[in-house]
TrEMBL record:
InterPro entries: SseB_N. Pfam families: SseB. Residues 8-118 form the SseB protein N-terminal domain. It comes from the Bacteria. This is SseB protein N-terminal domain-containing protein. It comes from Jannaschia seosinensis.
């Protein structure tokens, strides 16, 4: 069977044995589409009851990143499909762990309740908003490769939310300096999701103590022209004509 992104992220974490690699796996888990094994079809069509296993006095829900993996494990059981971030929130609320891809998958593992609670808490964190006056714009300085990889992975999921972005160094009134990621012509209402994507890239690259400021501009604003001259342009993916952007917090799809 072809390896999935979760398989590859888990293998990388095992091989590297570093906190950064383990965080990268948790980031991949948050973005994955998972198929949750249920005890049966919901009585009301909405409330789901995961099938649980108990290991060392902790309870785990069973989920798989491919429907065929679930079928191989449990046959034609009732399932719900939802994002990893949504599943983490549901499981953390019940103090449950996650039994992921049990059986023969490379990413098979038990994620204990405390790991799921950490993931849910991290994903629920909203970036702080501050007002600051930009005085100077310069080319971006050195950024760690794992942060650039995390940003690339997160921005690849933002199709249709903004036209482009610029990465640069900004100097603010008062002399403070920081890297800035400026999104140009963001879709109204997409700003919180874009800011959260950058914040999560920092966390899952192991650099949550670092900082990248996020701002939103229209292409007609003078700051956008300055960023075009000095910043690194990042073209964001365009949605396919029939593409529907799934809300990661949407209710699970039942089968």
């Amino acid at each position: 069977m072809t390896q999935t992104p979760l398989d590859r992220a888990h293998i990388a974490a095992e091989d590297a044995g570093t906190d950064a690699a383990r965080l990268a796996f948790m980031g991949a888990l948050a973005e994955a589409e998972l198929h949750l094994l249920l005890n049966g079809e919901p009585d009301d069509g909405e409330r789901i009851e995961p099938r649980l296993v108990e290991v060392d006095e902790a309870r785990y829900a069973l989920a798989f990143d491919l429907p065929e993996r679930l079928t191989a494990f449990a046959g034609g059981a009732a399932t719900a499909t939802l994002s990893g971030r949504r599943l983490a929130a549901l499981l953390a609320a019940e103090s449950l762990g996650l039994a992921l891809n049990l059986d023969e998958a490379p990413s098979a593992q038990l994620l204990p309740p405390e790991a799921i609670e950490w993931l849910a808490r991290t994903l629920a964190h909203a970036p702080a908003e501050e007002a600051a006056q930009v005085e100077e714009i310069g080319p971006p300085g050195h950024l760690p490769e794992n942060l650039l990889a995390a940003l690339d992975a997160k921005l690849s999921l933002t199709a249709g939310l903004a036209r482009m972005a610029y990465l640069a160094q900004a100097t603010y009134s008062g002399g403070a300096r920081s890297h800035m990621l400026a999104f140009v012509d963001a879709v109204p209402g997409a700003e919180p999701d874009l800011a959260r994507a950058v914040s999560e890239a920092l966390v899952f690259s192991g650099l949550d103590a670092g900082q990248i400021d996020v701002t939103f501009l229209r292409a007609s604003q003078p700051l956008a022209a300055r960023l075009a001259r000095h910043g690194l342009r990042i073209d964001l993916p365009e949605p396919e004509p029939t593409m529907l952007i799934r809300d990661p917090d949407a209710p699970p799809r039942l089968r």
